[in-house]
Amino acid sequence: MTICNALCELKNISMTEEEDLLPSFNENQVLLASGQLLEAVVILLKNDVKHLSTITGVYQENKLQLLYHFWQGEGITLRVVIDVTDNQVDSITDLIPGALFYEREIVEMFGVKIKGLDMATRMFLPDNWQGGAPMRRKLEVGSEEEMQEIK
Amino acid sequence: MSRVTIPIGPQHPLLKEPVSFNITLEGENVIDSTLRLGYVHRGIEKLAESRSYVKNITLFERVCGICSHIHTTTYCQAVEGLLGLEIPRRGSYIRMLLCELERIHSHLLWLGVLAKNIGLNTVFMYAWRDREIVLDLMEEISGGRVSHAINTIGGVRKDLSSTQAKKILADLPVLAARVRELLDIVNNDRSFKARTQGIGYLSTQDVYRYCVVGPVARASGVGVDLRRDAPYAHYHEFDINVITMQEGDVWARAIVRILETIESIDLSRQIVEKLPAGDVTVRANRKVPEGEFVSRSEAPRGEVIYFVKSDGTQTPKRVKVRTPTLTALITLPMQLEGLQMADVSAVIAGVDLCIACADR
Amino acid sequence: MKGKKLIKEIIRWARKKSPWILHFNSGGCNGCDIELLSLLTPHMDVERLGILKESSPRHADILVCTGPVTAQTESRLVRIYEQMPAPKWVIAAGSCSCTGGVFAGAYNIHDGIDNVLPVDVYIPGCPCRPEAIVDAVIKLQEKM
């Protein structure tokens, strides 16, 4: 029931006109613009959906989407479309402190800026990493370009 | 009093894997600690994008050596979901059997590591000796002690013969008796309790705020177990008993894990006794239709989530893995605050670190 | 002269009969590490062969290294090797530390530890069995 209530409320703020273009997915999903993320998380917390499983970044043809996977009995995913020119999104660590490590990973791997996040030290990539955001690269693994970048 | 910073790791007798803690002490008390991950980051998610779905099974098995089977199970479930496949019941039962045996072996491994860290070497030797029974069973079934390679897209690769089933049913009661002895030690031994009670406390509210999963959450009163609450494979046909404690300290986590081991031994016995007849695998297409799928399962350390995105070819477009140790690591600085230096080793072991899982 | 040679032979024999190992995981999945730890347990019991697992690089003769060397562990691995007193030997346990294993070609690893350190014995296997590790130490004893 909690997920159903949350879904109904989220539909009011989601980008319903583009939902037909979404790929097939086995869980409930809501498409949002990056400015509506905090509002959506507040709605979820109000409806007792507290558990954030992870944040996935999907980079396809110069477009980036962040998927926030929640679970409470059933799964529900918030798809946030990141504007490529703006390239930033709000941090949800004030509402859900457990999102810290997931957001830091997204910043490192995809090069997105998350407002309000302290990124003084790296988390996964080595201290001497010069290769940019690894998940944004379209390199063939083992290619010449890649070998030069690691060494 | 002056402050001292002590580094623990990347190479340290307490740690099996490289991770770096910097513990700041004032006298004997810990006032702050920081954590640096990334020593075991191998870029597996990027590697997975250039290999086929079947080759990726071998890759994801090696995300972690301790919980390798559950990773391949979750990954295969996601790909089978994209293909719309329903695997045969017998194959699903064999997957569940190995999941439970892996849970037993992982918890016994953890108990040994905790005991070694606090100085009780005898319990380490006992726990790892009893773990050999489970490793022998897993080697009988799949051919490998640590990495089983039994999952494939569409089911499992090997069938369980009746002699193997008889051996499992004969060995499990022996193991159950030994684990009960270990439970007796954890429950009653004064030195074990003195070293583990009252430290590393995590409240129920913090579990919800930091989205902690697994035995760490169950030891703080949050009784969520995906085998009962979101059943995958054929777990809906079994009665899963979810163990919770309210104390929230390292001792409670030890009790939760050992009681879960006893439950898993009973569950493995039920799985073998109720094993249905039939095939163990169905044929799967190489090309996976476009779509996305999220698959969750209950690893020994908590919830594992896999997200697979397919673009209609033979290689996945994106695979995302989130393992349960990452959720517990975020609470470590909080758990360590205010403790004495001598308790740090027990708390670090109590969280059941699997840095290879966390870093991928 | 004979006395000196005799003393050297005794030292060499003593060193051969008590090879103390240091274990370092340079980014592996843990499979080889738990097989290495199970050497100490009653099932394999390598202490009867004189092998003791040490905690500090300064006490160890042999560095048993698992895992493909990730970029972050490379400098630490070299530092540990330099901290070990001579004579010292290196065993590369598992396919990852021999050639990079399943992770060969990833953006963050060097393929195998012989790109970083001089290796004496290679143990293939994913993961390498405990019996293979014992065999490797015995083969190394012939080299010592």
How would you sum up this structure, described in words?
- The complex is a heterotrimer of chains A (151), B (360) and C (144).
- Chain A is α/β, with parallel strands linked by helices.
- Chain A has a single domain (2-121), classed as Beta Polymerase, domain 2 (2-Layer Sandwich).
- Chain A contains 4 helices and 6 strands, in the order αβαββββαβα.
- Chain A is globular, with a radius of gyration of 17 Å.
- With 360 residues, chain B is of the alpha+beta class.
- Chain B has a single domain, classed as Cytochrome-c3 Hydrogenase, chain B.
- Chain B is built from 15 helices and 8 strands.
- Chain B is globular and about 70 Å long.
- Chain C has one domain (17-143): Rossmann fold.
- In chain C, the strands form 2 sheets. A 5-stranded parallel β-sheet of chain C has the order 2-1-3-5-7.
- Chain C is globular.
- Chain C is an alpha/beta fold and 144 residues long.
- Chain C has helices at residues 2-17, 31-37, 71-83, 95-99, 130-143; strands spanning 20-25, 52-54, 62-66, 69-70, 89-93, 109-110, 121-123.
- Chains in contact: A-B, A-C, B-C.
- Chains A and B meet through strand 2, strand 3, strand 4 and helix 3 of A and helix 1, strand 6, strand 7, strand 8 and helix 12 of B.
Layout of helices and strands, plus pairs?
The complex is a heterotrimer of chains A (151), B (360) and C (144).
Chain A: H1 2-11, E1 28-33, H2 37-46, E2 51-60, E3 63-72, E4 74-82, E5 88-90, H3 100-110, E6 113-115, H4 144-150
Parallel strand pairs in A: 1-4, 5-6
Antiparallel strand pairs in A: 2-3, 3-4
Chain B: E1 3-8, E2 20-26, E3 29-36, H1 44-48, H2 53-61, H3 68-83, H4 89-118, H5 121-142, E4 151-152, E5 155-156, H6 162-188, H7 190-196, H8 204-209, H9 215-218, H10 226-229, H11 250-273, E6 291-299, E7 302-310, E8 318-322, H12 325-329, H13 332-336, H14 344-350, H15 355-359
Antiparallel strand pairs in B: 1-2, 2-3, 4-5, 6-7, 7-8
Chain C: H1 2-17, E1 20-25, H2 31-37, E2 52-54, E3 62-66, E4 69-70, H3 71-83, E5 89-93, H4 95-99, E6 109-110, E7 121-123, H5 130-143
Parallel strand pairs in C: 1-2, 1-3, 3-5, 5-7
Antiparallel strand pairs in C: 4-6
